[in-house]
Protein 1
Amino acid sequence: MQIAHFTERPVRYVPEEPVLENRAFFGISNKYVDRQKSADDYNFYLDEACYCEEVGFDAVALNEHHGNPFCSGNVVNVEAAILARITTKVKIVIIGNMLPGVKHPLRVAEELATIDTISRGRLVSGWVRGAGSEQFFNNANPTYNREMFNEAHQFIIDCWTKEGPWRYEGKHFHYRHVNPWVMPYQEPYPQQWIPGVLSPETVLWCAEKQYPYLGLGTALGPTCDLWDMYADKSAELGYQAGPENFGYLLPVFCSDTDEKAFEIGKGFIFGGGQNAFSRPEHTLPPGYNSKAAIRMLASQPGGSWLGVSKAKLMASQEDAWDSAAFDSLKAKLIKGYEKVQENMQVVVGSPETVTKKICDILEVIRPGVFTVFAVQGNVSDKDRLNSVKLLGEQVLPAVREFADKQELTGPFDREPGLVKLAPGTKRAPVVNRDALEKLNLP
Amino acid sequence: MATWKEETINIAGAELTVIRGGKGKPLFICHDEMGYTGWMKWNEALSKSRELIIPLQPGFGKSPRQDWMWRHRDLANYYLNVIREMGLDKPDVLGFSAGGYIAAEMAAASPEILGSLTLVGPMGIKPDEGEIAEMFAVTVNTYLRLSVHDQNCEEYGQMYGGEMSPEQFELFEDARAESARIGWEPYMFNPSLPDLLRSAANTKLPTLLVRGEQDEVIPQDCIRRYQEALPQANAVSISNAGHRCEVENSGEFISAVQNFLS
């Protein structure tokens, strides 16, 4: 198993009230940017990554978002390039570069090859479509999102494998002289891990490419369903999917006692947490989702996707903010915080509590990559580093031992797609549904 | 009531669903960016002396999307081929909002095959003052509400009131997606259009520019810029009406258009 530490690098000085008032992180005015505190945050997060390496994480994972204090990473490759130089052992996992938003795949190919070269082959290159709000921020036409993603991805693979110079004339990208003079250190190119939030199209695409799929804190039941879908597709393509094909990212916060962890872990719901990433009209720009997904949303009045329902989409933004609602809203968020812990979608507690819950989850979904998603909100340097320390010194060794017993092979232990399956052979299970049932989740 | 019918034909290389109703000289109508809203009072009035031909824009749910159309200009050229292949003799063209943008592109490309041009709250040219309202970063309801001055207007209720059916929800999403596909960037305008319209200025194509006085989608400056490009154009302002002046003050709208067309 490979164990990674991930953080959104939240902007820790942003006040909560404007986030709640805006009903989302995306769209808050950058008038709140504090240049001094911003410098403190950026430098702290780089130091925190080094500390993760020191205490025994196999990898540090990072991402980027835009126009959004939920995540201070705006240009992920810049931070990854620094980590390439200041760390020595850990894999640097980018989850990921948003290909349609960047709109310049040749530049991305060069940047990533540079990071891989400086780190002497420690890059894992993930790709994402970008959140809905990112399409607005980058003025990327949402109706071409998936087309641009596919085209840019294939173009980058070609950049890393074809001898130049060559000319490229695609649908969305054009280059008359492709001949990058930096190539990935790893031959032919770094592993590619793809994060996702339950989009079946992405899961099937990963299975076709034999790329590990990373579930981003998705509920355990639906995660099992999607991993079965991946494994069925793999079997169809002639290979047995295993733990090396799957990763899971889970919000985790560790402190000396359960009570303390519960208190500080409330950072996960700061400003409304993940569900307040962006408002519905920014989460689902026109044409960003497939027709099938829109039809599903239209015909299921109670259904929702990423916290967006038809009712929310149909609402207008005319309701005024009532500051008296602040307290009741906070109370609602606390209830939600308790609920996601019952569902095991957020794990906070002492090292013993956290270890037990993580192992329970691993037994069900059997991933080869486990990623800790560090706490959000205005949590101090000291509390964040203490969590990293407790995880590294007490939780990780126990989790590794459990993973070894369960034979949870990571993608660096066994190459995804290596275990071939003869046509017509029944595939082996990839999840443990009995274990899921035993958890008795609400 | 005038008779109108919906038919799907194969024309100019694509399948196209068209609403046709009324009798007389053809009036080719380009609906707006949220899709065709049904046969309203103004359709009924104009159809007394005209045959209304209303293509349902490709990609808006009924007529299939045509991938080769990248821009409103491509769609305009497709519609010009529809006019040619239907054998219409100098039809008058009427376009609403983004449909006005399409109609203006048609006039810029082939003014000689058109009888006249009526643009109602037209997008297509970037105003120097103000902005064309954002339709993609807001919910459907927010945009619809922005399109009228008075939400209690009778025909607005008929078009957009009440609980939305799954079919209507899907049609709106189709319309928004296709409008985004061809109009995302530059946002609902073509920087070349003022210069391209020189052809329609040279041929003195009779042109009417219409805008609701309280239009919050299209700034008055869009009208000024169209007039600059088409000096022969007349402009009228419809009182007590927003962007959808044809439903908010249909009386004034109908007489302005009828006067112009006669």
Protein 2
Amino acid sequence: MKIDFNAMLDTLPIMGKGMLGIFLVTGVIILTIVLLNWLTSPRKKKSSDQDSQQDK
Amino acid sequence: MAELFSNFGNITWQQVVMWVIGAILIILAIKKQMEPTLLLPMGFGAILVNLPLSGAVTQIYEGAEEIGIIDVLFNSGIANELFPLLLFVGIGAMIDFGPLLSNPKLLIFGAAAQFGIFFTLSLASLFGFSLTDAASVAIIGAADGPTSIFVANYFGTDYMGAITVAAYSYMALVPIIQPPVIKLLTTKNERRIRMPYKPGNVTKTTRILFPIVITMITGIVSPRSVALIGFLMFGNLIRECGVLDNLSESAQKVLANLVTLFLGITIATKMQAAQFLTWDTLKIIALGLVAFIIDTAGGVLFAKFLNLFLKKDKKINPMIGAAGISAFPMSARVVHKMGLAEDNQNFLLMHSIGVNVSGQIASVIAGGLILNLVG
């Protein structure tokens, strides 16, 4: 069986860049989801405040 | 009369071995119900293409080339990446990203569980595969059939048959592969950690915007993965938009079934004895197993690492990290069952489903990154 240590060593930067890339993209996606949830969630407090002001 | 039986003389022992492999795949599909939608057509296809002078694949008869229908299907459905992408529309329509959207932090485990891909890339290179072949073999670790086929085909590898057989077989074997790895890496107390499920409110607008925004982000970072992530998210957008229920149902059932039907038998063109019966195939089968094991270990160990920084009442059950491999939904079920086996009140399903769909996204991103970094 052919064993090629140099070829394996050549792939280590790809491994590093790949894992770094995947965590970075994942981080951006997590932030995006948090932002989407925040932007689209109903503002309960505000509307209930307005309701109570209208009642007054 | 002699002419009628003349083709018997063309049978080789390698073809007979492929018939046996085909029969084993069919038995596994029917008796054990292991990914039957793929393994059964592949098993039958393996027999079909390994009959002597099979007209199903391209042959030279009396000096003239006759194109076989399986090769026609391969060139028009897989060589141009059409089948895996169409299948992704169906898969996207099947996935509910709700648990992930309600707890987006889970996505990080999907990322960690892709380590097996990159580890296997190095290991395959060590064992003499060229960089593009090593990348094609490594993507078995995506635990995602269409992504494996897409990437392997992109690199034009000769090992498509072995890679696909390994990818789908190991996905079916997730309930056997994952538990021992998880048990080896976790203590009984860790497996008993309870995680209360507090679902957040996910609005319809978020569900609709999610597939669009993710396609844009992933597409900009990794342009070669646009087709993969785009078709997956297109299917999901059809599901979530609320006005295309008929299309969503068609994508989930009719489209997915139709493509799967032809995908399996078409892949079989790469299971011809001369290409398949090599030592490299055995190496690929072994490397695929390594990829699944390291994926599982990556997810579990990352969860354990995060636990070092979390307060006692906020600890994560490290088993959910294992669901980060994209084999959906088997991996989530495995983790849930293991949680219940340790503590019959420990319900991990919603967390593990969230991590599992994260794995689906992360595996596509990993596939795109492999295309960018190696291609």
Protein 3
Amino acid sequence: MRKARATWAVLVAVLVAVTSWAVTYAAPVRMGPVTDDWGVVRVARGQPIVIAYWLVVAGPDASLGVDSRRGIEIAIDDKKTVAGHPVRLIGEDTGCNAEGGTTAATKLAANRQIVAAIGSSCSSEAVPGAPILCKQGIVTVSPSNTAPRLTDPKRGPEYACYLRTAHNDLVQGRAAAQFVYHVLGVRRAATIHDGSPYAEGLANVFADVFKRLGGTITSQEAVSPTDTDMRPVLTRIAAGRPQLIYYPIFIAAGGHITRQAKEVAGLENVKLMSADGTFSPDFWKAAGEAARGVYNSSPDLSVEALGPKYQQFLDKHQKKYGEKPLSAFHAHAYDAAMMIFAAIEKVAKKDAQGNTYIGRKALRDALFATRNFPGITGNLTCNPYGDCADPKIAVYQTISADPAKWNPGVDPKKVWSMKR
Amino acid sequence: MAAGALRRPVARRLNFVDAFLWAFRLAVIVVVVWGTVGTLRLGRYTGEQWVDFVVFGLAQGGIYALIALGYTMVYGILRMINFAHGEVFMSGAYTAYFVAAPLAASGFLDRHPILSLLLLVAVAAAVSTGVAVLVERVAYRPLRRAPRLVPLITAIGASFFLQYAFRGLYGSGFKAYPEFQLFKGEWQILGIGVLRTQAVVLASAAVLMFALYQFVMRTKVGKAMRAVSEDKDAAALMGIDVDRIIVLTFAIGGAAAGAAGILYALVFKQVHFFMGFVPGIKAFTSAVLGGIGNIPGAMLGGLFLGVVESVGPALFLDGLGIVAPYQLKDVIAFTMLVMVLIFRPQGILGERLAAKRA
């Protein structure tokens, strides 16, 4: 009896293994007029093309993902139809952590109607999540992942379907270090990351460049994203007597650090600088009055830098949602959506009945072949590892810390922009 | 002969386990001593900074202790871990925000800070008590006679239910508590500069814990609670309404958690639907550390855990040359839990149980 059951178990395991192998290494699929190695999506006449987001739209970091989702929604409004079909946007929350990214990607991967995905929000979600989508041949474009490793030349074939319109933090970290060293004249700095690929990558780039410029890094610390009591780690930092603390982390922990830094003996006059992950009115809510004077490096979101297209976007945003953008990556999300729509139109083929067929690998190749695509954030050109951004980085300083007065460029005030 | 052959391997295995545990104990002691000596020789921190570490730890520990009381009291009476207790803590703090915000907006909070604080504590305690009692009535009472694993699973379910219910009620973002101007800055206490919020937290936690302890030890109802914890059936035979006492236990644990929620909000300002999870786990750890079922144990465990989290990374890990030691704060906390579970499973102060029930 027991033996029979064991045999069955082995048999089922073998069967599962064989099927999953077969699914992964499927022979070219032929459907309608299209043949594709990764599979084909058929969109019946009059039916919508399904695009999925996987962004953090709940929890303390929700402003980041909701901001991006609004960018996508405006892009859909502007585009109206893609290859003659309306667009339907579905999505999953990713929670800004690896577990959430895995769950969301797994759910999306199970839906064979999804043509392309937009996400994730946080790099920690993309590291495990993107390979899950890639395995199903679903191409994904991230509007806000910035960790260098995601588009590193050594990133591996499991990320073959991953691109991003956000800048690479090699650029942001360098810009931040230059600002701190040359403009603020700071020579001693400490960094804090939260163990996420985004924060760790950015803190390391900043530290490397800062040291190369001639500065001293007094300590490189780490906290965990759910920590609330930062006073001990700040006391440890105070022992090194830095002039500035660079903490490119997320809103919850960033708020705690901002509030508690001035309470720690030895840090009363220290300058604080964070990055694009906390560039949101929610960060002001989290940090309260303590946010006054804090610097943020972030994409340069000014009409001077981005041109009149961005002003038009802002007007539509104001009309549709009745408020200013919530974070820094709405324009990147808009561009990601537009890039996908353009690529779909390039590869979509119709049959005699008017049904549309989209080859998954063809779509992926078309996206990677994007050259000089005119987006809001600049002229996008994708490199072979998925970096498509035309990065423009600025540094902002918080004036009022009143979430109702959030108006990037004015308050927080733009104090510096990267020379290119 | 046969018996001897059977006995010998058993004896040898025990020796091996013993040797392993001794080696483990020794290794931990060597690492701790090595790290401590190394840190002190580095001389990175001043005396004031060490004092700061301890004070920060005590303030955090006071909050853990207040939450831990709920875990330990419920365990003492029902022999079950109420995993929804972290959410009971969240419910009070989150709801009281909606009282705090208008108080701050109208300026009442700045004019009468003490009165406002008491009002907030009352609201939070009332909500937390309500939620705790409701959970007991709906999720645990019907399962009173079920196997032990069943209420444990229900507790986890109740925990998720409450999290997402509050997410649905108040939204998925976080809310920021208003600032108490009165509690800004420092007080000099015995020549040590202590942040006012932390002094308030420590003092209130101490008062609440003292009151609770007196209640359990001195009043008639407290005596009934202790009786139910020793033997439910015998207590019922003595004319104690067991159900009422159990509800009361949940209510008191909930009130303590609600008060802890306000203290937490005073120090950390951010409240959201998921805020109960980590403090809940930490408070559970504190309760086990101190000896679950034991009220002074929960208090001691909470303070101890807070201090170890705050002092530990700097004291033990700096000297070992580990970079960014505060990332490993939870590792230290949970290593300590594992150590206690291995070497003193009854906790630091021991479980207060009738021997036959343990």
Protein 4
Amino acid sequence: MTALAALIRRDIRIALRVGGGALIGVLFFLTVVVLMPFAVGPDLALLTRLGPAILWLGALLASLLTLDRLFMADHEDGSLDLIVMGRVPLELACAGKALAHWLAAGLPLVVATPVLGLLLNLDLLATAAVALTLLAGTPALTFTGMIGAALAVTLHRGGLLLAVLVLPLSIPVLIFGVAASEAAIAGPLSFGAPFSILCALSLVSFVVGPFAAAASLRHGLD
Amino acid sequence: MRLLASSLTCVRGGREVFSGLSFELAAGQLLAVTGRNGSGKTSLLRLIAGLLPQAAGSLALEGGDAELTLGEQAHYLGHRDALKPALSVLENLTFWRDFLGGEAFDAPESLAAVGLTHAAHLPAAYLSAGQRRRLSLARLLTVRRPVWLLDEPTNALDTSGQDMVAGLMREHLARGGLIVAATHAPLGLAARELRIGGAP
């Protein structure tokens, strides 16, 4: 347990230091969302209608942006060899790394959402709904994205491959995340149904992600 | 404790790197693996560590912990130093101590043993190649493992550093440890030699 905690602590610490990448995701998210009103124009009703989708797209792209470093950095400096050899089961180590990545790069997106909601003319309830769906849905993005990161680890410049691999997997999360937010804002569907599916997607990814990532890491190390 | 390997074969990317490699190593013995560049010294170490699949042959640590794999009872010191430039020297070392789960030696004591006490709070990004090597050697001291797999341990080290490595290895052997080291330079210790790939 101390071993796993040490791994999570180290990854968060690196992410928060200069050049670590935690801030890059949030800044990207901020940039995408801030640019959107300038592109769409000053139609407030339209912005409100697009708001949840814009926030979700921004969060999806921002979480992809830093994901390729999840295993790549450890692979390049040789740490990954020692993690694979270590007594902590690799599945657990993968889950720990994904959790650390989400805490450092996913959670800040959720925290930034209320501020960005103002720019998209979302009221308090709508902003809260989007933030809640992001809180439930971004872990699924990290944990499924981890599979792609593990597959791309031995390839140089694997970032593009990662995006191609991971985007199809994240489409269900996007659909139900936006559906739940819009249901909370306008109806007529109930908020509960799409939100439950979103939570289910996250739970499934918690189980499948670490196992798939560990299997592909074991296979890919050569 | 004995490390037994019989007719090991390693295949990488469809090409046979070496085949039919057998050796036996008892506690307190050092095996120096030599051979041309590309003959498969690193592959052999990674295969023992469990980082490469065995195409054929068997590998066992007699008298080791039956619950653990060979890799889990071994230290692997590779070409790459497994250091994070953003973390300080001490943070790097304490992380590996906690992750590998041992406290044979306190982190500051290990740093003193490899001559890095003065740099403990420096980010690892500022270390020279030799200092990085010393820091990854310190990892072997903080956590006790019976088998050491060393890939060119004296790389980038100055003369005093090479003497230090020889001293650390001598202590490990005296405690009943086993060392498999891939090397070009003489290590300064009595060693059995395993030559891969025939004469140069």
